[in-house]
Structures are given as C-alpha cells and as structure tokens.
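Retro notes
What went well: the complex prediction finally ran end to end.
Inputs used:
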Amino acid sequence: MEKKKENVFRKLARWFVRWIFGVKFEEKWFGIRHGVTEKEIKFKDGVPDDSELIVSPGRQILNRFLERKFAVFSVFVVLVMFVVVFIAPHFMTKYYDAFTETTQKDLPPALDLMSVPGELAGNIKMIDSYSSFSVGLSNDGKVYVWGIGNIGATGITVKDIPEEVKNAKIAYVAAGQDHIIAIGEDGKYYGWGSNRFGQFEATDAVRENPNLEPVPDVVANGELDVSHIKKITCGYQASAILMDDGTLYIWGNKQTYANLDKFIGRTNMLDVDFTLNYVVGLDEKQTSVYTGTKGLYTKASATIGGNNSVKMSEFLNGRKINEVRATSTSICLLLDDGMIGLTGDFQSDVQEVPELEEGERFIDIEAGTYHYSGLTNLGHVYSFGGDHYRQAEAPRVSGAAKLFAGAFQSYAVDANGKLLDKWGLKGYLFGTDDRGANIAERVVAGGRITMTVGAVAVIIEIIIGVSIGLIAGFAGGWVDIFLMRVAEVFSSIPLYPFMLILSSLLSRASLSTDQRLYMIMVILGILGWPGFAYITRAQVLVARESEYVTAAQAMGVKSMRIAFKHILPNIVSVILVNMTLSFAASMQTETSLSFLGFGVNYPQPSWGNMLSRASNAVAAINFWWQWVFTSAILIMTTVCINTIGDTLRDVMDPKSTNDK
Amino acid sequence: MARYIAKRLVYMMLVFFLLTFILFVLYHLMPANRAYTDARTEIQTMKRLSEEEKATKFDELYLKYQRLYGTDTDNNVILYLRWLGLYPFYDGHYSGIFQGDFGFSYDYNLPVIDVVPVHMRNSFLIGIITEIAVLGITIPLGIKCAVKKNSRFDRFTQFFTLIGFSTPSFIIYIVFIVFFCSILGWFPVSGMKTPGANYTGWREALDVLHHVTLPTICLTFGSLASITRITRASMIDALNLDCIRTARAKGLSEKVVIYSHAWRNALIPMVSIIVGGFFGTISGAMILEQMFGFKGMGLLFLNAMRNADYDMIMFLEVIYTFLGLFSNLVIDLCYGIVDPRVRISK
C-alpha cells in the first residue's frame, strides 16, 4: 500500500494515539488506513491468506513491539524521563548543587506552606512564621496554624493547638523556629511546640540551665496589659514582647543569641527583632541599630548591590530610624522620611530594592528569613532581598493596608483583613534533604547526571566492544586470539574493588567535579566492554559465513569495509538489545558506587548519593521521603529500560513466535 | 586434561602478574610515603638539635626508612618485584608475597595475614548460606516458570523478578532494614553481636544468629531476581531443543523430560553463575556489609580504602584477582563435566 512520508512528530502523535485509544481512532483521526486490519484478512478455505500479511522485517519488529502495551508504555516513560532530566534543569534557574538552608532541613513533602485556611483568609488580623509552619490570627481571636507542623523527629507538632487557646480570644501570636506563643485579650500567656530550650515555658530545668533565659514571670502569669503591647516577635529559639513604654520582655536560648543578655530588663526600646545570631533593637536615640555589641551593623546603604555602604551617621544624615526589621543575615531600617536603609550581608540571589513612584513612601516593612516586603502609602507592596524561593517577586497589588511576612512567604491584606495576594514558597513536592535542599530539584539534576553517566558509559562500551569484536571475529587467526585474551583479562578484573581504587585515586587527583564525572564514565566504559566484544564476535562469526559476505568478498571489497559496512548493520539489532540492558546496568553500578561514596560526590547530585543517608536505619524511617521518591524514580526508570530491552530481544528473535 | 589445566594455570599466572602489576603501579600513584612520615615522626621526638643537624639527621633517617621499606627507588618494576619477593631489599634480604610476607596493616596494627581470615570466614559463612538458599529457591522457580511459560504464575513471577532485577541491591536492603528493624523491630540494625553483652556458648551462638539473620535474608533477596530470570531463560531455550521434542515423542514422562533432559541442557549456561557465585561468597558483599556493619571482606576492603591502608588493599586485591581467575578456570572445567560435548583435552 502506498503511503505518504510523514514527519516524525506526526508519526509519534499517531503512535501515541494508537497506544492510548487504539487503531480505530488512529485511522479516524489521522486519515490513514493500516495495511492489514483483522477484518480485512482474507480467508481462503477457512485459513488466513498469508500473501497479504508479508511485511518487511523492520516493520514486523515494530508491529510486534507495538503489540506489547507495557513495552510501549516503558518507551513513553523513559522518553519522558529523558526529556524531564535534560530539559527541566534549564528551567530551574534558582537551583545550584551546593545549596543549603538550615531552617528548611528534613521537611516532609508538603505544598501547603502558603495555604492560608479559608476561614482565616477573609478575616486576617496577623500572620507570622519563622520556619516551615505559619500561624495566623483572625479578627475574632481564633488561631490557625498551617504548613509543616512536625518538629523534626520529636513527634511534637505545633498544629496541635492547645484546647485553652482554641477556647480563648487571642490578641497576639508569633511563631519561632519550633514554637508558637500567643497572648489572650485578657493578657493570658500561651505557648506550645518544642520547649527544649525554654522557648515558651519556664520549667525547673529551664531555670537551672544558665544558657537559657526563662519566660519572665510578668508574662507567664498573664499580668501584661494587652492594650499596651507594641510588638510580639519570635526568633530561632527565643521570643520577645515589646511594650508601648519601651519595656522589653525577652527570653529563650542564649546560645543561639549571644547578645540576648544585653536586652534583658531594658525599658527604652522602640523596636526589636531577631537575626539568625543576634537580637537587634532600636533605642530612643533612633540613630543606630542597638545590639549591645560593638562593631555590628555600623554601615548602611540604600540599595543591596554595589559597595556603596557608608557609615550609619553619614547615611542617616539627620534622619531618624523608625523601625528595624531583621532577616537572618541583614537588617532593614525604615526611616522617618519613608525611605529605607539596609545593613548586613545579603545572599547572591537577590532582588534589588524597587524604585518607588513619585510621592510614594514606605509605611511598613516586614522581614522574612531572607527577604523584605514593604507596604507603601499608596497601598502597593514591594519585595526585595533574598529571592531563592521567588519570595521577593511581589505581584502588583493595590489597596493593601497590612502586610505580613512569613519565612519565605508574604501576604498582602486589605483594611478589612481580606487576603489580597500571597507570594513565595509553596512547599516541597518531595520534601527536603538533610541540607535543606529541595529533593524534587535534586532528583531532576541527579537524574541528569545518573542517566548521562549510564548513557556515556554504554556508548564507550559499545565503541570499544563492537570494534574489537568486529575486528576479532572478522580477522580471525592470531588477531582474534590476542583480542579475546585481552577481553578475558578485562572481564576477569574484579569490578567493584577496581572501581573503588580508581575512584579513590581520582579523588586524590586534583580534578574538577566535571572532570571527575567524565573519568567515572570512562572507567565504567572501559571495564564493561568485553561483553559487547563477545556478542559482536559471535554474531560476526555467524554472519561471516553468509552469502552476502561471500559475495562482497568475491567482488573484492576490503575486509574492514566488509566488517563495518556489511556485517555491522546486520548485527545492530543484537547490539541494540544489549545496549538497552547495559544502560540500566551502568546506571545501577553508578548509583551503587555513589551510594558507597566512591562515585559521584556531593555537591553534585546523583540518584545514588542522594540515597546514602538512608543507610542509617533511624534516618531511613524518620525521613522516609529522602529515599522513597528517589529510589522509586530510579527503579521505575531501570524497570522501563529493562522492559524495553527484554521486549526488543523477544520481538527481534525470529524463533520466538507469538505462542500466547 | 592435565595438560589443559597446566596450560590454563600458566596463562592464569601471566594474567595474574599483569593485573597485580597494573594495580601495584596504580597504587604508587597515591600520595603516601611511609618512610617520610616515619622519619618525620622520629625526628620530632629528638630534641636539642640545631636546624642544620636536624636536616642531615632527617636525610639519614629518611634513607634508612626508605631502605627498610624498600622504597629507595622510583623504578616500579623493582618495587613490584620486591613486593612479590623476587628482588632483594637494600640489605640483601627478600621479603614479599613468595616469602609469605603480605604486609602490615596500619589500621589494625597487625600483619595483614592475621586480619583477613576472620573476615573471610564471616563473609564465607553468610555467603554460602545465601548461595544455597538462592539456588534452592530460584532453580525450582525458574524451571516452573519456564515449563508454564506465559501462565499467570509465570507472568506474576516475571513482573516481580523484573522489578527485583532492576532495583539496585542497596535499595532492597534499605527497604528490609526499615521494615524489619525500624517498623517490626525484629532484628538489630548492625554489628555481629550485642555490644557490651559477654554471652558465652549457646547464648553467644544465638546472639550471632540473631545479628546475621537479616543480612543473610537481604543478601538472598538481592540475588533472587536475576538468577530466576537466567534459569527461566536458559530453561526455555533448553525446552525448545530438538532433543526435548524427541524425548517427548518417544513417550518419556514429563518429569523425566524436564528434570533429566531439559535441565541438564539448561545447566550449561548457568554453570558460570553458580560456580562464580560460590567463589563470590569469599569476596564478600561490599554494600551489604557496609550497611549492616558486618565484619566481612567487603567491609574490610571499604575501610582499607577509606583509611588508605595500602598493604591491606593490595593483599585483598590479590585475593580478589586470584579468585576471579581461579573461578574462571573452575567454570571452564565444570563446563566439561556438565556438557560432555565440550572437549577440553585439546
């Protein structure tokens, strides 16, 4: 039957349709007719007439392959995996191998880090967060917690809001790294979460520990005048309450905040906040950041980039500081003229401070872990600072009256407490690893490395193995004997011990990570080629006796040309099958080596080294997401590749008939 | 036959020397200089020496240690021959593998030869149990699958062996550890015996058994899939042979056809796996031993690699290479036994 040449995409689409919907739809949608369908088989005396069924061998193999649903599905999966691991990294612009983030360590899979509960969304009084969970307070005094509430492997979850908090009308809430504190309208104090470092409760153990500052009695006994609370905020494992009159109550872990002592009992503070290592405040002079420690935050600038920091007094130039807001590493100063100043260090991946419109000025600044969000007098919101999670890319919002910043999120709220917009980190599909990196991203980046290593190793195996096999098989004689002896030597090398020695040699040599990767591919290839050489040689020995080779020889074609031009194409199918199976095997070898720590090393991800933490039984059960997803994807890929190889072998073997 | 074996042995020795030489040279690429470090340590213990005296004294000591360790030359061939025990040291004595001196493990502070046998025994013990269990399970399973090809049972087995075959062994171990140690708590996670408990006699044996059960189960499970697949494939090939058709045609019972005729033929391609497996038990299972802290050959090797315990690595490498080559020889001889058509007396 005549058929037009069709382009590759149309063909693929057609196969896809056939695979999903079946032949009928394929014929209907693509306007084609297959050569033979079941109905059309002519019967002659009750048996099918074979004469029309004859198709070319390639066509027959393809047809038989397409009959196997699972094999076609496997091809689809492997193709998708390839596309994902080789194309997706180009879209992960924020990803880099050595990324670490302490506050995001070991988080389980969740995508609700920014999901403000529906009941709260129209009625927000305040939102606060420091790590992976957020706490919100509605105008009618109800507390909501969302995000990842489990505190490490302690079994404590901050989502268990105490009954008395649920029943009380709450006025203020604040969240730290692993605790939440709340103050009721009546001044009563509540706290929950982890109290290992005296975060919220002054137990006897906390009082006895010189490194911990217990909750002040005034706070704990509920003697605060709620109407005079100016600010309530939490740091890593510490909390602070600031009153209108400048009185500061501060408590928590003094080991994380070395200058916490300097703030205890102060009565002249206008503002207070926590960086990762210091408590920072603002005293009544309003001309510098108070830390109680000399030499900190003495320089400031109006923008993040460039080296335009000048001395604080010079920068302020007579202006006063109204508010200080701290991220983990930097501080933002809101000045009395509505401008901002920045001091401290910034990450490399930042959004610059925005240019404001004419007459526009900041009236509020909120700080996350690395980013700042600012609210202006026109009701617009802006974000700047650390942008790894795209938390500093504010949408266009107007009419915002309040602004809250979570750790990596920001929420713009209007005057009635209705949520206008939110932006920042949604969560992690596969959780995070022990360094706080997003596992989903590492799976993609690691897949690229694992699949590249596997593929390149196989290609090297094929190039060496097939050439040597062809030469040995075709030349025969002493060449054959010599080459086969060489192959034997290589195949008697004990694989793992040898690989380990080579890779530990590599780690001592001063190679860049990329060069090391190439070397691993080459080593895998060099140790794996004998298999291909044996198979090729065996095939060549058969092919050498066939008529077409004799004909070529009779015509005076040179031996090498016969070997590579005439024999090679005829044994491609066998090589193809073994290539597929070797590809999966190489991937497995690479992952095993990397798992042992002798293959691809951190920071480069590979499906093997991402699993190495799971060799610890405790980590394997507590942080199950750190190995389950990666190994599932690894297994799925190798299963599919092996299925393709098996099916190819079956369908290419003329002996195996459809004896179902 | 004897001539064949002799020929093979000579060839084996050649390959052995070639491989160990390559490995030896590779080793000497590693930056380690025992003579230098020892001289350095000794010079630091000497006080009241001027800088100049120190320098001359150091040179003296360095040379002394180099001669002692036989590293007073850069010639790799001489170094290799000294290691083998075929070339004299500076003072004229021979000390190498042929003299029974396999080196000294700095990690264990013992001669290498004293450390290895214990580990080898451990590896061999769980290896041999595993090997027997694996063959005991996979061969009947593979035969049944091949005989009932494409039956539901076969497809079911095929599906699971495909997954098992495609899963790197360490993932299987992780799953088993999580399931049996963390969730069920039946077995201890690592080690060979309960730390601190000085059991004796019967209790000790039970304790060791308790510790090695899970590694053995894991190791068995790790190799079930691939061997089942291989058995099935070679059995299917064997069942398609003409001789099987003939056997059936002459009216032999199905049992005789399968177990006596077909299995005999299917065994031929499996010889290398079975024999290789038995030899492999001695080399130990690196990943498994690493994960369970099981004191076998694999863990010994990994630790030697990590701590750069050179003599140990080299000795283990010799064992591995020797086992590899020797098992090849045994495999070839077994072919002759299993398959009478193979004539190896040529």
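What we learned: The radius of gyration of chain A is 34 Å.
What to try next: split runs per interface for comparison.
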